[in-house]
Design goal:
Length: 278
């Protein structure tokens, strides 16, 4: 099987799983997103820590998973919000465990165990605020629209970048991602706004057009930073992909790097403007 067909089949499978998680019911959403979180944290920790601190890596992943599940139960099933503090139990064990690190020369790797929580688990847990209403009603259309805008802007940036950016455009952030150009950025922004307006007109984004445009701009800009942040990690550790769980596409962290920054920013925008009632 050549690389094109491998990428196509795995890409279709990925999209199918995402649609099932966002459109079927809250139970599938919970299982799929919790598993995705575990995989992304594992990819990040393997990239940054390797085989060091394997027990602490488990504690970090456990803390992130507990946080997501508790926020999920709080939003979707009415569990007491105060139970979220239970996620800090493995974090406390993790902190105590740091005292017993024998090889202090590799101690700097230990901080990545906390970074995984802040970089992946916390923003991923906020997805629950996009799919559950105040009464626990599940609706994944808003989150699906977020992903459409984020990934659509990536496509726009890529198309503009390869056709015009490499020849005429200045580089966006050459020290981190040499191939990204300003022309690609503006192309991605235009695609994001076009998709945001289209989703608004179709009723998938139930907000005023002005809010949809502002939201699209924020998702695009934040998504670019999310992409650059992961590129910086990969460049530092000299790897091409975070993993290989999606054949031909890399790891889950490669697919959700933009969303980890963009979606929390989008949710915050809607909450601040009292558009999304939480």
């Amino acid at each position: 099987m050549n690389n094109f067909f491998k990428r196509t089949i795995s890409g279709v499978g990925f999209v199918a799983v995402m649609l099932a998680a966002l459109l079927l019911n809250k139970y599938i959403f919970g299982v799929v997103m919790a598993l995705a979180l575990i995989v992304m944290m594992k990819e990040f920790l393997v990239m940054t820590c390797g085989k060091d601190y394997w027990f602490s890596q488990i504690l970090s992943i456990l803390a992130g998973t507990i946080l997501f599940v508790l926020v999920y139960l709080y939003r979707g099933f009415g569990f007491p919000g105060r139970l979220v503090i239970l996620a800090f139990v493995p974090v406390c064990i993790l902190m105590v465990n740091s005292l017993y690190v024998k090889d202090k020369s590799r101690f700097n790797k230990f901080s990545n165990l906390y970074t995984a929580l802040l970089y992946i688990a916390v923003p991923w847990s906020l997805l629950n605020f996009a799919v559950f209403g105040p009464d626990g009603t599940f609706n994944g259309i808003l989150l699906l629209s977020f992903f459409v805008i984020i990934w659509g802007s990536d496509v726009g940036a890529y198309l503009f970048g390869i056709t015009l950016g490499q020849k005429y455009g200045k580089k966006l952030f050459p020290s981190v991602s040499p191939k990204k150009s300003w022309i690609g950025f503006w192309g991605g922004l235009a695609m994001a706004v076009a998709l945001g307006v289209a989703l608004c007109k179709l009723g998938f984004l139930p907000f005023a057009v002005g809010h949809c445009i502002a939201l699209s701009v924020l998702l695009n800009v934040a998504g670019v930073y999310g992409d650059l942040i992961e590129s910086q990690w990969k460049r530092h550790y000299e790897i091409k992909d975070s993993g290989n769980i999606i054949p031909g596409h890399g790891g889950l962290l490669d697919r959700f790097d933009s969303a980890l920054v963009a979606i929390p920013i989008g949710i915050i925008y809607l909450v601040v403007w009292n558009v999304l009632f939480v």
